Amino acid sequence: MKKLPSVRAIFIALIVIGGIQLVSTLVKNITILSMDSTLVSTGNNLAESIMIKNSRESFERNYNESYRQEIEIASLRAASPVIVYNGMTMEELAQKLELSLNSTLKGYGMSFAKYSIQYGVDPYLALAIALHETGCTWTCSKLVRSCNNVGGMKGSGCGSYASFDSLDAGIEAMIKNLADNYISKGLTTPESIGKKYAASEAWPGKISYYMSKIALEVE
Predict the structure, then answer these.
(1) What is the pLDDT of residues 67-86, one digit of tens each?
(2) Quick check: 22 and 40 in contact, CB under 8 A?
(3) Residues sharing a CB contact under 8 Å with residue 71, sequence separation 6 or more, in sequence order
(4) Is the pTM of this model over 0.70?
(5) Of 67, 99, 104, 108, which residue is the least packed, with the fewest Cβ within 10 Å?
(6) Rg of the chain over CA atoms, in angstroms?
């Protein structure tokens, strides 16, 4: 006579079958992630929480690393001097131009430097024209002292000449005028500018002299 299985054996078998079914259910319900870690489907809250937490931590690590690299790049750029003209930084150029300034224009090296670079004008050329037109190599003319006109610019407010609210404004206006009405039209040398800027044939030679003098100035 065939021996029947005991109650204990049946109980153990039921536990094993139940365990297999539970594992199978968990496997089916585990969150499936795509290759880029995007959540595709979910059936298990615990698994979902773990996956979301891991994805968030991974994102934060990548973001923090990217942010750190951006900070390092910005720091390196800030530490590296920006050359604006002839191997000089803006501050060095201003100091260089300052060596040629006297009288009323003393202390305005930065104005000549920054506006020349801003408007794309050779700073030596701009300052040379200002020195020639104002006489500020020694004592600035009344046009500079009374009207803040550093380029002999025609206009109104100061007889037949333009008047400006400040020396800085006058310097900017002179350099912008050079940029708009001369440099942008291909007139970039004292010779080409002089044909339009001044009636004197000696003007280009005088501007070239000032440019050479400015370039050779040293502390």
Answers:
(1) 676 776 666 566 678 999 99
(2) no
(3) none
(4) no
(5) 67
(6) 39
